[in-house]
User: What shape does this take?
Amino acid sequence: MATDAQRIEELRRLIEHHNYLYYVKAEPEISDREFDRLYSELVELEKKHPELITPESPTQRVGGQPIEGFESVTHDIPMLSIDNTYNADELRAFDVRTRRFIGGDQEFDYVVELKVDGVAAKVIYENGALTLAATRGDGVTGDDISANIRTIGAIPLRLGTGGERDVPALLEARGEIFMTMEELARQNRIREKKKLGPLANPRNAAAGALKLLDPRECAKRHLSVFFYGLGVYEGPEIDYHHDVLETFVSLGLPVNPHWKLLSSIEEVIEFAEQWALKRARLPYQIDGLVVKVDSYALQSRLGRTAKAPRSMIAYKYPAEQAASKVLGIRVQVGKTGTLTPVADLEPVKLAGTTVKRASLHNFDEVKRKDIRVGDHVLVEKAGEIIPQVVAVVDAQREGRQEKLEPPDNCPSCGGPVARSPEEVYLRCTNLDCPAQLRERLRYFASRQAMDIEGLGPAVIDQLVDRAMVRDPADLYDLETGKVEKLERMGTKSSENLIKAIKASKSRGLERLLTALAIRHVGSTMAATLAGHFGSLERLMEADTGELESIKDVGCTVAASIVDFFASDQNRKVIEKLRKAGVSTIAKARSREGGELFEKTFVFTGTLEQMTRAEAENMVRDRGG
Ligand code: IVH
Assistant: This one.
């Protein structure tokens, strides 16, 4: 018994030591297999002696149960933000300001660190044990993410593994939780298999992982961390920021190794220039550098503005760019006829993904930037997944192709193209345009609209090409016998499709209004309209005056709705839908009884488990 207890302690120390060598020192001494063997031995011994398990045991990183929600944590010392600079002169101006404030010719140093792109968080250790972790939140209060933080292998559950320094009674370490580019790519491969959209960038990926309610799921995201700052602290005196970084390392907290102590702003600028080139080779994304006055005495003299300390400044790199070549320019037709020029590009690696195309937005934009096929261009991803063509870099080449003129006719159906005076977009006005029809059907069947499972792009293309469907209402006349003759459709799948189409009849007015793809009417507006009118019939009778009297309905939306229902063709489609038995009545939402009644939610960015429209529907279904 005594020997088992001793071995358990020894194994824990060994595991912590090798974790430290791996994550903090980046100098592992044993292989992953040997590490796993130590870990398994500990798991086995703890199974035999469950009474010896403590929360600090490396086996206890992933807690038992998913949590219901995150508790709020008020920061004892606010987690401030930091001012940004974008070029060398702004850095020099910061230096001048700082020196003037400090006064005289007093010499001081700067610490320069890489600014890793992730999520700011703090971790609190009391007498060496991890007791709390929280997000920055709005700087005053954040979320208690202790359970998720414990799953990050690089975060020690107990301080002191490094050895040389005394463990402080209280230590709040602040740092950046992030995801490496390799892990992001791995996560996106998994998401693709699950038919989920890609995570746009490592910052979103880290934020999404930390917000997961189930720590077991968070553990699968393999997050990383670098610590860069001190919050609440009770321990041996520390007078310089560089000393904090060294203390962190010796206590076992990972610190980005590329920091430097420099004595002049010109050295800082040189450091920034070096990293502008080197940063592409880092396994994680940085968006700049942070420059900090090293002395804490000077830091506290400099104080802070309302939002940021005066002793620090961020130097931000421009969004990552890459050179590519325009191989072709296509014009895509959207569901309401909008014509969007899209550039096919020579594939190029940019901020972690391979870019093959970029939206050129509209023809004014193409003209302004004078983008032509064959041009060498600069593409940029400004923090998001959709790349932009920034500029043409080589316009003088021989044999440069002709300018791309805005088309007079729709590239899909040849129909007339119009441009309303207040808009930059061109639009195909042919209501029978097959490209529009395809997009409309896709949207009609999508999860946020009529949610027809099995009606994917391949089936839609065939239905349109064979003229089996001329408008969304035709879907409800389809029969198994005909559908099973389509390519890659068997009896079973066509039966399922017909069943799914039938099931969509009872989705209710809100979904139907979304599905009709009326311009300016998305799922939120559809919910407002369904709630107000209750039936499609009532909505169709409304004039702009009545529509505009509704909260959130402006004149553009009102005009668009009236126009839509004034069209004979649209009225015919609606009549066919009604005859087919599609519900045009609003579903009674259990609003007042709903658990989210009178609560407002805003969804932005990419969600982990569902689309934004689905999340919005879930909130509305609960009365929100
Ligand atoms: S110091 C008073 N150092 O950048 C705020 N921040 O734009 C002190 N960040 O919220 C922040 N690396 O999330 C600091 N080495 C570093 C950093 C860093 C990344 C993030 C952090 C902060 C944001 C400010």
